[in-house]
Amino acid sequence: MPEAIKFAQCLVALRGGECEIGWSTSLGDEAQSAGEFAERVRECHRLVFHVANAVLSDRADAEEVVQDAFFRAYRKLSGLREPQKFRAWVAQMAYRLALNRWRTAARARRRDTSWHQMYGDAQTNVESIVAQREMKRRLRAEIDRLPKKLRAVVILNAVEELDTRDIAGVLHIPEGTVRSRLHLARKALLKVFSDETL
Length: 198
Known about the structure:
By secondary structure, this protein is mainly alpha-helical. It has two domains: about 5-115, Rna Polymerase Sigma Factor, Chain: A; about 125-195, Arc Repressor Mutant, subunit A, CATH 1.10.10. It contains eight helices and two strands; from the N terminus they run αββααααααα.
């Protein structure tokens, strides 16, 4: 790795809509390439910032990603085979860096809040599980009280997850009759549960 690149420092900052770029290298030979690179940075800075900001939705984080992307681009500039694709290359680099930063932040948020989800509302979780089980038991009992014709259609639809065409085939009845029986069964169940809540 050339000394100029090894000790290069890239300073890109967005202040008041203006892009300030500064380069310092240890070798004078690289000053011209640094100037060319700075010009390319000016040309595509806005695009790179918008890409990073679209992923992160945070201006400060996006600016850090932009700086990191341009610094990495400067270090890896010799590896770019098609210089005319510099803009897309840096934008893709910024996208990947922003995505990595977003994923890291999301993992940290999950890690920081997972204990609360597991242990914080244990009493509420137990109560909701009991309530769900009770509701399922009552629903099953009410389905069992339905007339046989309605009960068969509801069970095939809700439990076996068959559509009306398949139910019509299983029961050897017209599809319209299946829809009518489903409607009547749902109406009866709704009446039972709405009467209990009043």
